[in-house]
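Quick question, first post here. What does this chain look like in 3D?
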Amino acid sequence: MQKEVHILILSSWYPSQIKPFLGNFVQRQAKLLSSRYKVTVLYTNTDNSAKSININKTQDVALTELIVHHPKGNWFLARKRNQKKAFNKGLESIKDVDVIIGNVLLPRGHQFVTAVKKFACPLLYIEHGSYFGNSKRQSWSKIDRIVLKMVRDRTNEVIAVSQVLKDTMKTDFEHFDIKIIGNHVAADLFQPAPKEIHPITEFLHVSTMDERTKNPEGILDACVLLKNQESKFLLTIISDEDVSKWKILATKKGLRENIKFIGPLEWSELVPYYQKADALVVFSHYESFSIVIAEAWMTGTPVISTSVGIAHNMDAAMGILVEKNVPKSLSQAMLSVINKERSFDQNEIIRHAAQFKGDALLEKWSETIEQHVE
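> Answer (accepted):
Ran it through. Tokens below.
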């Protein structure tokens, strides 16, 4: 491409001082794309302490992040008005956009459309969220459905982060050939290391511990069943959210010696835990992608998981699939790792994980972007 392409990234989720881990995968996407393009991120952030609208601007070579803080407002219409003013103020400082990438439809997909109208350029809409699933779809408000229609009518390309998510979106985007571009893992960080022999088997779980999706209580129940058969195991749980509830429950269930809670940690700080683990445990009801599975594979670590996200129909060489919400299924899989009934080729896992490296994902993005930019 001869000209410098300017990408505007918008998102319903993005890290801020108040929620530093929210939508961190979108920030990583922005940094990846800025290695090849000029990238500006615009995100509006509700700040209860803000008295007026103010823009926090950070710049790093080709990446500019504009976080626009605005007062919350005491009622619904006031909140919407403040957010709209903040977004428009951010737009005023941006010039000559060639393509817009809109991440996560709800609740701010209407901002994607506002930006398209201003810059008269293509919109690439990529979804990461889980709300297209049948159960969650039923709880959509009328406003959510209006936002969906607005974005669908204006978007030039629809992208999902996994085949599972693509399948759930087909009904709403039946006239689109939905592409799949997953989230990337930093290959320079998530390096494999030789697996050491531990006196006890070490499992790892990394998540927000959201009980609606991650099923943390199911994990604890599986550990209770496992302990009844084999006590020599340790599950390290790393979370960037408050886990006090789960610490108390783990103690009540007699798992104090078997479960260790850590976090929050920076992305780079996770790596040694993956490298040390005998297996990553994922027991989610639903995942649209599950970056932790890709991170584990990148370090050569097998995964015990329900059939969610990129572990959907997972090959046996990559790990062990377990039944959703059946703690006994999870405990049996963990026991098979303890007893070394299953062996995994670390090199084969690493080869499979190569598809999630930044270079591989950047090429997919470039191919898509350059189809829409003259």
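The first strand starts at residue 6 and ends at 11.
The chain has two domains: 6-184+357-372, 201-355.
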